[in-house]
Write a structure and sequence with these properties.
homodimer; about 525 residues; five-stranded parallel β-sheet; about 15% strand; globular
Chain lengths: ~525, ~525
């Protein structure tokens, strides 16, 4: 079914909603759901609203981990179910702001001068939000501190970031972010950073701040070594919804971004998305559209296309928020459902010159969420043709692509924001958080745990342990050993493949002392340890 | 079917192939294809090899556009079917190198000193390759020129890049890349850059180089305004396979990267991937695996996960190469097939803390292509635990995730490279180029055109034209007009929605002179033009 242009205009008027208090509009007219679909979903939607109300009131909304889910309290502390929680949230925001002021005015400073850089060391929920916000709101030359990130355990990647910082390590504030304090990538990043400070003759502790759970390993280290400051994380805030806790607020405040506006945007969006009707609640609109297009099973990929360079990391941020929250094997009744929604996308119009060819002509396995930003730039625009600006082209390409996709039966949602600002970024964060929460109830999954990531971590720990055994074994066998021999010697039959992989990795790094002879076949190659 | 660990080790030995001359290994053992599948594909594969041979010999392999497809000649000019082409390729590489030397030694310099930065202005195939290579091989502090990019028509995005460059515009070499010279994003980027140089009292022409087709609009501008230099693009090189033409070689050479090694890697990979058996040809292995996992219809998403920060842009680069090449409506017999393979991914182990939850537990709608890099870093590694390095963890997380996914029946390919170097990046580019070409024959599509992107461009041009009409109309109606009135007045019934969107965009940008009154409903809002 394709609508005539007149019908489209009518449908646009029906399903285009402005939320002026949020600087937001949502347009569903290019989604081909029916009124009947909306009516059929109404009971489930009301259940989702009710569950969300319970969650906000402090219910154990994450039953597997027996935790409350409190990210909505972060921007409206009066909502917190206990006065102590409210006090902690308020005290933390105040401490973040006070610390940022001390850093900015030079009372807290590095060994070689006032802090010019902030190096955030974290991964996943402890990095994606800060990275998204830093790119969206920062401005080179104007930022009070320039942001850098260690977001992986790649040693060369860390070296490269250190090379960017160059000789300014003595004016670089390290912010180590780990709720448990046990995330190994972050622990490694901290150790690599500390070694770099030491090589530069600097005390790491005198340049370091921790954001972590009270009593965590990291908390103990920071306390024992007298780091500059410690900020709390709470078990009722999940990593992927922690941007408006100290995790996101501290680096943003240090960069000089307006965290009050960030919080205000999220708070205003929360207020609107507490509405209990489809028409007035943009988060409910998103959630129902996701259900419609994917049959409640994620049958279509979500392509997120912001037409604004500053929002380029939104899709990465949403990959975590949406895929980690919804990608679940079991539903709340322990039935195997293998749920999720797959997300991709970078930015328009750039992506039009990349994969939009496939979107328009190829597999119809997706829907697009366009993010339109009305305001082009500060100040006057250059005319690239009489009466036409670069921003007009950006807008034109967005509208043209939306039309071209619709003409070939590809559906899309358009989310419009007035401008990219701290307030609107707060709105976007809160909007998608709530949409995910509501959708999770529609499909009956726990959006607040991540049981599937443990298996990979456990398997990785086994690899690390096996490596030590291999190195020890090779030390005892100076003539070297084949993979089969190592496996037999360690009584690790069945681990040959992993042993081969570990040995190849070691032998490719000259400083590890592992050599190889005997060709390139996994069956014949022999590994040796240089003494 | 799940294999026992012993069976896996046997399967690993069978389907793990090292290509020592490429520093490459490919492991298919976690893909559950059968020998029968391989046998059944053999005739099609031989056809693909034969077609590729014709292509390399100069056949019109892009029939719709009646063009030869010559990217393989770029790294082995002696293969070019005509001596003039060979001469042009060789002369261009020589000219690129000579120009880079002149820039590096200061014979060619900016108004305020030797060039320190290169600002590439391009989009899609004229930016993604250079961006991928710059990130993979560059090193802050060591690069001869620091790379910057305008890759969109977002005016604020361009302003932000200019703010990064700061006061060094007089030492910044602008490289404008557009084959046709008609790509509007790039034209706009060029105009915005030129205006910035002028505001700084600098001549843009004296800091600009063009890479474009002979006789294009851009070529004429560069010639008329006496830009520093012009380099050619040819109609037999598509944008998405242009990295080893001047498009990629010039920025890489300016940055100080080893373009000879880049070309050597691609040439060596081409040599290996001309092999006509599955076992000896890694590109054929990839192509058959794509066919197997997606039933020749792209039924599964491809998740590309390099465990190396430097390769983070590989997935973006491959999105264009793969999705634009394969995402086609019609096959070569004009049958509607809606083909493609959807690609996503950033980097490991970072993504394990993001969407790997869904990969392991949620929708089984994907396969992973792991990219393993054996070499961790230059120099000695820090021990983060006794005998364990950050790189061991990176390797351990890769192996752990590969195992965990396999245990929950998610399939994966592992591509191993010895290190990230100019040579290995050349290998990767050539490997995926050839895999795409072979796979396209397997599914009988033209991999070398992009008919679907025109519709969006045409629709965008209509939007730009309509905007001018609207502004004119509002100028003639000083009391303002509703969307319906504008549509009626311009005889554009059916365009109400687009008119509303254009007016909203204009009214959000104060310098455009468009105001709005009458509420937020599309039906009632009135737009005015300030005189």
């Amino acid at each position: 079914m394709k609508n005539s242009k007149l019908q489209l205009w009518q449908r646009f008027q029906q399903y285009y909603t402005e939320f002026p208090e949020l600087g937001l509009a949502l347009d569903l007219c290019r989604m081909k759901f029916t009124e009947g679909f909306l009516a059929s979903m109404e009971p489930r939607l009301q259940t989702a609203f009710a569950k969300m109300k319970d969650l906000e009131a402090g219910a154990i909304a994450n039953p597997d981990e027996k935790r409350m889910v409190g990210h909505y309290w972060l921007r409206h502390p009066a909502l917190a179910p206990q006065p102590e929680l409210r006090a902690e949230i308020e005290a933390t925001v105040a401490a973040v702001k006070a610390f940022a002021v001390e850093v900015h005015d030079g009372r807290v400073r590095g060994a070689t001068g006032p802090f010019k850089n902030v190096l955030l060391i974290g991964i996943g929920g402890s990095a994606l939000g800060p990275q998204f916000v830093a790119l969206a709101l920062g401005q080179p030359g104007t930022d009070k501190l320039a942001p850098f990130f260690f977001d992986n355990t790649d040693p060369n990647g860390m070296e490269k970031v250190l090379a960017q910082i160059g000789r300014n390590l003595g004016q670089t504030l390290a912010v180590v972010v780990s709720k448990s304090g046990g995330t190994q990538e972050t622990r490694n990043g901290m150790l690599e950073a500390a070694a770099a400070y030491e090589r530069a003759g600097l005390s790491f502790a005198a340049h370091a701040v921790a954001i972590t759970g009270a009593g965590s390993k990291l908390d103990h280290v920071a306390q024992a070594d007298r780091w500059l400051r410690r900020f709390p994380m709470w078990d009722w805030v999940g990593g992927r919804t922690s941007e408006l806790s100290a995790v996101g607020l501290l680096p943003a405040a240090l960069q000089g971004l307006d965290i009050d506006a960030l919080l205000a945007g999220a708070r205003a969006c929360d207020q609107v998305t507490r509405g209990t009707s489809f028409k007035t609640n943009p988060a409910a609109q998103l959630a129902l559209m996701w259900f419609y297009i994917g049959n409640g099973k994620g049958d279509k990929n979500m392509v997120v296309l912001p037409y604004k360079d500053r929002l380029e990391l939104l899709s990465k941020y949403l990959q975590q928020l949406i895929m980690e929250s919804l990608g679940k094997k079991l539903d709340l009744d322990r039935v195997v459902v293998n749920q999720g929604i797959t997300l991709l996308g970078n930015k328009g119009s750039t992506d039009q010159h990349s994969y939009i060819q496939q979107l328009r002509d190829g597999l119809n396995n997706f829907f697009v969420t366009f993010i339109e930003v009305l305001r082009d730039r500060d100040g006057r625009s250059l005319e690239v043709e009489p009466g036409v600006t670069s921003g007009d082209y950006l807008s034109g390409f967005f509208l043209g692509t939306r039309t071209a996709l619709y003409e070939s039966d590809r559906e899309s949602i358009t989310l419009t924001i007035d401008e990219v600002s701290a307030f609107s970024v707060g709105v976007l964060i809160a909007l998608f958080e709530r949409a995910v929460g509501l959708y999770a109830t529609l499909i009956n999954v726990n959006a607040y745990h991540q049981p599937g990531v443990e298996a990979g971590k456990i398997a990785a720990a086994e690899v690390i342990a096996l490596q030590a055994e291999i190195v020890k074994y090779l030390g005892q066998h100076p003539d070297g050993a084949s993979v089969t021999e190592i496996a037999a010697g360690l009584r690790k039959d069945g681990e040959e493949e992993t042993i081969f992989k570990i040995c190849r990795h070691l032998s490719a790094n000259a400083d590890r002392g592992v050599g190889q002879t005997g060709g390139i076949s996994p069956a014949t190659v022999k590994f040796t340890l240089r003494s």
